[in-house]
Amino acid sequence: MDEQRFVVTDDIWARLEPHLPGKESDSGVTGKDNRLFLEAVLWRVRTGLPWRDLPSEFGNWNSVFRRFRRWAKGGVFERLFEEIRGEPDFEYALIDGTIVQAHQKASGAKGGLRLRPSGAPAAD
């Protein structure tokens, strides 16, 4: 497994860790490697593959899935989203035709661009 491709940086982890269940200060069982588990969930979201295809380096797929379900039902992911939503990350910004409108003439409608014999655009 290529740890260089992990998503959760040390800075982000420092902000998220206090909001996760299974810390030493929590009652009950201590969570086994919350950071690796979170990376497994993010891997699954990025790839879109079934839980059964989770690389074995993340642990048993069924254990990871059951933990994911507990966290989802317990509102853990909502708390994480609340913590990190204040600072947008514009590493990836997507704009497509479903959110951007253009005037009909922008698509090369009748008339188009008229060129002079020299190849320069003609003034209207």
UniProtKB/TrEMBL annotation:
InterPro entries, per database record: IS402-like_dom (IPR025161), Transposase_6_like (IPR052909)
Protein name as it appears in the record: Transposase
Organism for this UniProt entry: Paracoccus acridae
Domain Insertion element IS402-like: 8-81
Pfam families: DUF4096
Domain of life per record: Bacteria
